[in-house]
UniProtKB/TrEMBL annotation:
GO molecular function: ATP binding; glutamine synthetase activity; metal ion binding
Name the record gives this protein: Glutamine synthetase
Keywords: ATP-binding, Cytoplasm, Ligase, Magnesium, Metal-binding, Nucleotide-binding, Phosphoprotein
Binding site for ATP: E206, F222, R223, F224, H270, Q271, S272, R339, K353
Species per Swiss-Prot/TrEMBL record: Alicyclobacillus cellulosilyticus
Amino acid sequence: MTARDILELIKQHNVEMVDFRIVDVPGRQHHVTIPASEVDEDMLNNGIAFDGSSIQGFRGIEESDMVMRPVFETAYLDPFMAVPTLALACNVFEPNGNRYERDPRYIAEKAEAYLVATGIADKAFFGPELEFFIFDDVRYDSSAHSAFYSIDSIEAMWNTGRDEGPNLGYKVKNKGGYFPVPPTDTQQDIRTEMVQELIRAGIRVERHHHEVATAGQAEINFRFNTLTKTADTVMLYKYIVRNVARKYGKIATFMPKPIFGDNGSGMHVHQSLFKGDQPLFYKEGGYGNLSDVALHYIAGILEHAPAILAFSNPSTNSYKRLVPGYEAPVNLVFSKGNRSAAIRVPVATVTPKSARIEFRTPDSTSNPYLAFAAMLMAGLDGIRRKLDPTALGYGPVDKNIYELDAEAKRNIKSVPGSFEESLAALEADHEFLLEGGVFTKDFIYNWIELKRSTEVQPMHLRPHPYEFHLYLDL
């Protein structure tokens, strides 16, 4: 598309407002809105100025002037606004016209360019499966003298005894939410409307269903695409899901572990490489029909997993999901069809072109541009160095790892137990991310400092409500 195409779209749909959107370093969207009457070719081609010092992870106040330029192919007619509004995702630039190194979308694009430059492949396909919760009420507070959170859902197991005038039953049991039909599944219609809006936005949706946990856990799957386009889709997907939920008077959250004692929400990421039309991950008769290239790619991800998790599981809450017993993929091994492994090799209805690996550890608090780029860089490092996952002790393990005896488990490596450990791993192991200038040391150290100062350290400083249960009488 060109600037003229955008202007024609504005005219065709009687658009009154044009929304320019960027993504900050942690992965939140920000926007500025311009009346359509003020939008012309120059603005669309040259972008608009904004204050980078007010965007988390960007710049200090002494060098705050920045520019956002729209990516025309991301044009989206936003159905949630009261007047016709066209939304455009933007790239971030320096005032001198150079791309901004801390723009997450630029890092994703550089990862794709590096892939081509290696000669290994020319396309990396990513297909994430996002899980989320739809709640009826969320309240929380944290002050100097008190802290609490309270979540509620009409279908939650803890509401079997509540007077709902009347209580109609059919609550979802803990870990009992996978695929039940209505009336147990109370959210069929809201998920269907989410799907309709995703399709209207040009996203190819494959399925939707209730997920395992009680209290409204859901999953909507969309078709895979190349790395940056898939990350664009994830941002739009989260926007649509949240706003449809709000329309129903509910709240959608991608927080990995909002409920104690039940399954959390992950973002399983399917990945494959192609050179032209040739799939590089398939070899008939190989383990899971995988090629040597695919096995090297697996080894790269598992070898660098502790560092990758600093981007793919980038919250203190992420590691409350990554505990044994809740279908959490905490084991750094690969396996055919085994959901207790960090990397699963899908084997059902697989063709040469659909041969892929599934990295199950990530969650949706991740910034998709950064998480996908880190995964690709780790996989390419494994291919470049011809790493052997079996020789490195990563399997395959085709058994339920949670049921292995202590001796068998001893040789299986696990993911870091906390976000603090993952950040330390990234600090020690990030050379693979610097290849081709994809990530920079400035970005990596900025990320580590940002996360330590705004998330890890504040959590350490605050008393936890459960600590009163443990220690008040000591």
